[in-house]
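Researcher: I'd like a candidate sequence for this fold, 190 residues long. If you have to choose between options at a position, lean toward the conservative one.
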């Protein structure tokens, strides 16, 4: 594993089946595979994001959501700059586990930006309303995003806003560019 120097670590956590792997594939490759298998352990991909004449190199970590691997998860989000707790808006149990994931993050990380992401908003059998999810996020003092890994809705917006927040908090992570102000995404998978 060869991480790029000054790579910023993003980690996605949440229940099995919430769509973490699909969100990452949509963000990095612009594709959706409805037959994604559950993640075992963890994996990561890298992507460079060009924002306002700066290049931010990020590694996006995908963690297993199954209870069997729950004990391993803290080692994967150690040193994360951003932690995204993902739940499935069509699955009440997935939503009810968000607070537990957030508590675990707060116990094991100190400076990570933590947010909540309600995924699968394209599906008609939605159970968790936007209002309920926003209320939970407000109670936990976290940002809330809604996404669809299937259609791509909200995915780039979430990663871009979190990247901008990282850049504004940590200017040393940005590598200066010598071109006009742009946002450009490129990929490097591992």
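Model: Candidate sequence:
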């Amino acid at each position: 594993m060869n991480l790029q120097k000054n790579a910023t670590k993003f980690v996605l956590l949440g229940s099995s089946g919430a769509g973490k792997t699909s969100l990452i594939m949509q963000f990095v490759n612009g594709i959706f595979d409805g037959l994604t298998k559950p993640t075992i352990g963890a994996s990561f991909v890298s992507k460079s994001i060009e924002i306002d004449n700066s290049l931010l190199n990020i590694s996006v970590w995908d963690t297993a959501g199954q209870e069997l691997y729950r004990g391993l998860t803290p080692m994967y989000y150690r040193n994360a700059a951003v932690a995204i707790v993902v739940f499935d808006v069509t699955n009440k149990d997935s939503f009810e586990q968000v607070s537990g994931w957030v508590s675990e993050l707060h116990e094991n990380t100190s400076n990570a930006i933590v947010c909540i992401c309600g995924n699968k908003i394209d599906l008609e059998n939605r159970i968790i309303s936007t209002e309920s999810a926003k209320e939970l996020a407000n109670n936990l003092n976290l940002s809330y995003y809604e996404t669809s890994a299937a259609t791509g809705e909200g995915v780039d917006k979430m990663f871009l806003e979190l990247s901008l927040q990282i850049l504004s908090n940590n200017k040393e992570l940005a590598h200066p560019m010598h071109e006009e102000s742009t946002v450009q995404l490129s990929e490097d998978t591992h």
